[in-house]
Design a protein that fits this description.
Length: about 550
């Protein structure tokens, strides 16, 4: 890849504290002085609309808007939703010269208005409007302390093999338009797909300052080289720039981006940013997309909280958390009962502005990997595309169980496995896997530690008489799976010696499976799993 790569940068972890908000701002990696090539605007990049010519840095603080300040919302601004377009137009005419119209979404009959005094707005409302706050949103960055040291495996340039892709995927996603709502997608020699751009936030005056977050997100979908490979290189990209180069956005821009993407014909929307606050207007935009059959995928957030960022936390959105190359949940990845799945999100090679590459960490990387999987599944039928909904269900049905057995708050239904998805209709595949060695600490109900060993059928045929062997600090135990249907799991729970929990020595678990009845395992690499676990100091 030396033909165009001038530097390989690892995205550092940095956190800018923002009072009242829990999502962190994004920072671009320092660029090498060796990079002489200028970044040019994407083909088809549109000029920002006049009504949204403001930038976040230009917004004054309206101290009189106490309600917004207390709510952590943008002061001096509100979102208004009207019953129809005529009501919206009447309000605009009435507000002329008294309020500033900052944004408009005709598909939702919604306005973003700015004011100097809340009373100016109140005097124009007749009570039929739905009024809501506009909240800041950010491109998230993991906190350094929340990345497990020494216990996780980087993905690097092995994304395709980690996802079970062992064949030519260059045409996967062909005919599928994917919208990326982010900082914008810059041209990159790793891309071969068409990229159309809509800039709801202006590009920087100096394109060298362009935040490469959106470009990194795009590369995980459409990357075509071995350094920064993508899941569905055949897909086309609609880049909707809704965040500036500090990674700042807001919920109105998210809503505008969603509606713009739907109206432009996107089949899937990726949102690798979010807010700590739920927005009614964003919910309306999600409903607008869902009714049009458009799938929305969003990153869970990177603050290690038991609450998903929004819009990942909204109904109608596929929320994706982060795992490492072997399915270990990343400590920074937000969790929640509505998390759909997990995908790699630790030092995944991705493209950046200026034909650079980065090691991309965070749920921002996990979301586009899920999007790529859906786009690939959509194109798996050849000339006839599957619907986004059918493809999404196919991906979610063929997840690899990781972590705790079954669906859990940290990894949802499991880790994305694109190879399984693309072979879902192929008969004759036998694949038994050790999915997880999961430790259950002692509790009041069970005073000794336990190990749960999860065996999964990742093939397309029923498994019969699967041998299992598990070695723990308590010894080696032979087990057997009588029958296991495709996609199903069986969990064995084994007690561990109480003394092992108080020992300073890490606990080691070695579990393996093998097929009986003369069956040949299609993927022997997942037949054995060795894990270590360090009990908490207390």
């Amino acid at each position: 890849m030396a033909r165009y790569r001038t530097a390989f940068w690892v995205v550092g972890f940095c956190l800018t504290a923002v009072a009242g908000y829990w999502l962190a701002r994004s920072a671009a990696p320092v660029r090498s002085a060796k990079v002489a090539e200028a970044v040019v605007a994407p083909a088809g990049a549109s000029e920002p609309e006049e009504e949204v010519a403001f930038r976040h840095g230009d917004r004054p603080v309206f101290r009189s808007d106490v309600e917004a300040l207390k709510a952590g919302a943008l002061p001096g601004q509100r979102g208004l939703v009207f019953k129809d377009g005529e009501a919206l137009d009447r309000f605009v005419a009435k507000a002329s010269g008294r309020l500033r119209i900052l944004g408009r979404i005709d598909g939702l009959h919604a306005l973003q208005v700015g004011f100097l005094n809340p009373d100016d707005l109140a005097g124009l409302l007749d009570g039929t409007e739905d009024q809501s706050m506009i909240y800041p949103a950010y491109v998230p960055n993991p906190k350094p302390a929340m990345v497990q040291s020494g216990a996780v495996v980087a993905v690097g340039n092995q994304l395709l093999s980690v996802l079970g892709i062992n064949s030519d995927n260059s045409n996967w996603g062909k005919g599928v338009l994917v919208a990326i709502l982010d900082t914008g997608v810059s041209p990159n020699q790793a891309f071969g797909s068409a990229i159309t751009s809509l800039n709801l936030v202006p590009l920087p005056a100096n394109l060298a300052d362009w935040n490469g977050h959106g470009t990194a997100v795009a590369s995980l979908i459409i990357g075509r080289d071995t350094l920064t490979p993508g899941v569905a290189p055949g897909a086309d990209i609609l880049s909707v720039r809704i965040a500036d180069d500090l990674g700042q956005s807001d919920t109105m821009l998210i809503a505008r981006g969603i509606v713009s993407a739907v109206d432009a014909g996107a089949a899937i929307i990726n949102i690798s940013l979010g807010s700590s606050s739920d927005s009614p207007i964003v919910r309306n935009a999600i409903d607008y997309a869902n009714k049009a059959g458009v799938a929305i995928v969003a990153s869970a957030g990177n603050d290690g909280l038991g609450q998903l960022a929004f819009p990942a936390g909204n109904a109608g959105v596929i929320a994706v958390g982060a795992v490492d190359a072997v399915g270990t949940s990343m400590a920074f990845s937000n969790s929640g009962n509505t998390l759909a799945a997990a995908a790699p999100g630790y030092l995944v090679n991705a493209a950046w502005t200026g034909d650079q590459a980065v090691g991309f960490t965070g749920t921002s990387a996990s979301a586009p990997i899920m999007v790529g999987a859906i786009a690939a599944a959509m194109s798996s039928g050849g000339a006839t595309l599957l619907s986004a909904g059918d493809a999404m269900n196919l991906v979610l049905t063929h997840l690899n169980d990781v972590g705790a057995p079954g669906t859990d708050a940290a990894t949802g239904g499991g880790m994305v496995d694109v190879g399984r998805v693309m072979q879902a209709s192929t008969s004759g595949i036998y694949d038994a896997a050790v999915a997880s060695n999961w430790v259950i600490p002692p509790s009041a109900d069970v005073p000794y530690p336990q190990l749960q060993v999860v065996i999964q059928n990742r093939g397309t045929e029923m498994l019969v008489n699967v041998g299992v062997q598990v070695t723990t600090p308590g010894g080696t135990v032979p087990l057997n799976v009588t029958t296991l249907m495709p996609n199903a799991v069986q969990t064995f729970t084994l007690p561990l010696p109480s003394s092992s929990w108080t020992s300073a020595t890490p606990l080691k678990f070695d579990s393996s499976v093998w097929l009986g009845g003369g069956q040949t395992d299609a993927n022997p690499s997942n037949n054995r799993r060795i894990d270590s676990y360090v009990p908490p100091a207390n």
